[in-house]
């Protein structure tokens, strides 16, 4: 199965480091981040999970729940979490899915046979409250993810859902945003009281609406 942007994220039951869960019940009405790891006790994953744990308050501010996945078992996850807490100076509180039979990895297309026949690649999905897949990023096993970029995309998605805007290249929270082509300049001047700057008829900026 190949999951694409806009697809409904498949539901599943799973064993995790924090007990059995139903994915949809775990997410509730929150945004969600599901991300896979090649294996437990691996150095890059250890740094990623540690950093994700330290972003707990940032994800909470954005109404987002995090859940990780690895093809190892629950006992390995729990022992590995102790290593992560020790080496990364944190306290991992989000669940790690145990996917020894690779059922969920196959469901979410986390196994890329040409990269590894057994291990999952470093994939990450952002899932909105309607359970729609809004972002898919896949890294090779050797490269750690940039979670500052994940937060940036999450901010952009939530902003875009709340206002009729798009975000330009290298956009950061507080920067000007783009008026999308579907909104006329006349309509934009009514919608965005802070003003609209027209560079070209198709390229128009307005200050970020919620600042």
Automatic annotation (TrEMBL):
Its EC number is 1.11.1.15. It comes from the Bacteria. InterPro entries: AhpC/TSA, Peroxiredoxin_AhpC-typ, Peroxiredoxin_C, PRX_1cys, Thioredoxin-like_sf, Thioredoxin_domain. Residues 3-159 form the Thioredoxin domain. GO terms for cellular component: cytosol. The active site is at residue 45. Keywords: Antioxidant, Oxidoreductase, Peroxidase, Redox-active center. GO terms for biological process: cell redox homeostasis. One of its GO terms (molecular function) is peroxiredoxin activity. PROSITE patterns: THIOREDOXIN_2 (PS51352). Belongs to the peroxiredoxin family. AhpC/Prx1 subfamily. This is Peroxiredoxin. It comes from Chryseobacterium cheonjiense.
């Amino acid at each position: 199965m190949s999951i694409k942007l806009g697809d409904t994220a498949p539901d599943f039951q799973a064993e995790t480091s924090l007990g059995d869960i139903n994915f949809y019940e775990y997410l509730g009405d929150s945004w969600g981040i599901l991300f896979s790891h090649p294996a437990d006790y691996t150095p890059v994953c250890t740094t990623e999970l540690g950093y994700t744990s330290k972003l707990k308050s940032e994800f909470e501010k954005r109404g987002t729940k995090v859940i990780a996945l690895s093809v190892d078992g629950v006992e390995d996850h729990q022992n590995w979490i102790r290593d992560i807490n020790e080496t990364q100076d944190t306290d991992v509180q989000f669940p790690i899915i145990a996917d020894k039979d690779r059922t969920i990895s196959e469901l979410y297309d986390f196994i890329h046979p040409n990269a590894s026949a057994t291990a999952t690649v470093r994939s990450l999905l952002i899932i909105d409250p309607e359970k729609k897949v809004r972002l898919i990023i896949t890294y090779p096993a050797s490269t750690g993810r940039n979670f500052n970029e994940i937060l940036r995309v999450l901010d952009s998605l939530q902003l875009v859902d709340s206002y009729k805007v798009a975000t330009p290249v290298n956009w950061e929270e507080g920067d000007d945003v783009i008026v999308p082509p579907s909104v006329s300049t006349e309509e934009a001047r009514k919608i965005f009281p802070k003003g609209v700057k027209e560079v070209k008829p198709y390229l128009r900026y307005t200050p970020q609406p919620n600042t």
